[in-house]
Specification:
The protein has 78 residues and is mainly alpha-helical. Helices cover 44% and strands 5% of the residues. The structure holds zinc ion.
Length: 78
């Protein structure tokens, strides 16, 4: 599981680590799975909040197109 844009994993993104802690999830992956609206089970991809905002808050079907491609080159983030 990774962000479709920056390729970070949930445990590298403090937002999801925090959510996991608050909700007693086993790992940040579960925070994404349960709480992140952009997460797609089929592709096992999501779009983290900072990328989502950077990309101009795409609609879910736009995200799905990106997921289908596997990744997006959206400049260099970290
Ligand atoms: Zn990202």
């Amino acid at each position: 599981m990774k962000c479709v844009s920056c390729s970070r994993k949930p445990n590298e993104i403090s937002e999801y680590v925090e959510i996991a802690k608050e909700n007693d999830y086993r790992s940040a992956d579960f925070a994404v799975r349960y709480e992140e609206g952009t997460y797609h089970y089929g592709y096992d991809l999501f779009c983290c909040t900072s990328c989502y905002i950077k990309m101009g808050m795409p609609l879910q079907n736009e995200l799905n197109e990106l997921y289908q491609k596997g990744c997006v080159s959206n400049g260099n983030e970290n």
